Amino acid sequence: MKIGKYIFLIIFAVWATATSCDKLFNDQIDLSTDNNENCDCQIIEEPTTYDVKLKVTINDKNPEVPITIYFGNIERNNVATTITATQALTTVNLKLNHDYTYMAKYLKGSDTIYVPVKSRLKKSVYLCHDDSCWTIDNSVINLKLK
Predict the structure, then answer these.
(1) 90 vs 65: CA distance, rounded Å
(2) Which of 24, 80, 98, 111 is deepest in the core (most CB within 10 A)?
(3) Gap between the Cα atoms of 125 and 28, Å rounded
(4) Closest CA to 63 of 88, 91, 82, 83
(5) Cα(94)–Cα(67) distance, rounded to whole angstroms?
(6) pLDDT of 25-54, one tens digit each?
């Protein structure tokens, strides 16, 4: 009976190693080949920062919308930057591969309304005609007042 346990453990260890090897060797790259001749590579060099688009509500009561962006959770109070949006689509340049909490502040009647959004700004890479192409995930944040 003990031999059966050891054989099971050995088989499990071999299976776990075999299925995780790809991740060990390519930890930083999640390459998938795009053989489509029309693939469109927008970002060729690996970025470290990116312009995030923030969608806000601009109206008579809110011609300017203050936005505070925090690293990670808002409770840690680790402010990455603060901006004031004066247009419905505003951009801010942020470091990639970080979690952010975006907090927009609005006035609605006599009330102050906060619109929080938490998101990870991350990059990934794929192959297009043997070239590395970078994409950015979560680069548009909707902070509109509902």
Answers:
(1) 10
(2) 80
(3) 9
(4) 88
(5) 14
(6) 333 444 444 444 567 788 889 999 999 999
Strands 49-55 vs 79-85: parallel, antiparallel or unpaired:
unpaired
* Model pTM score: 0.71
CA distance 142 to 71: 18
Ranges of residues in the chain with a pLDDT under 50 are: 15-36
For residue 59, the surrounding DSSP H or E stretch is none
**Do 92 and 85 touch, CB atoms closer than 8 A?**
no
Picking from 59, 67, 87, 84, the residue whose alpha carbon sits closest to that of residue 146 is 59
- Ordered structural domains, the chain, with CATH: 33-142 (2.60.40)
Q: H helices within the chain, ranges in order?
A: 2-25
DSSP three-state, residue 11: helix
Helix (H) or strand (E) holding 33: strand 33-34
Among all chains, which residue has been given the structure tokens 């007042």? 145
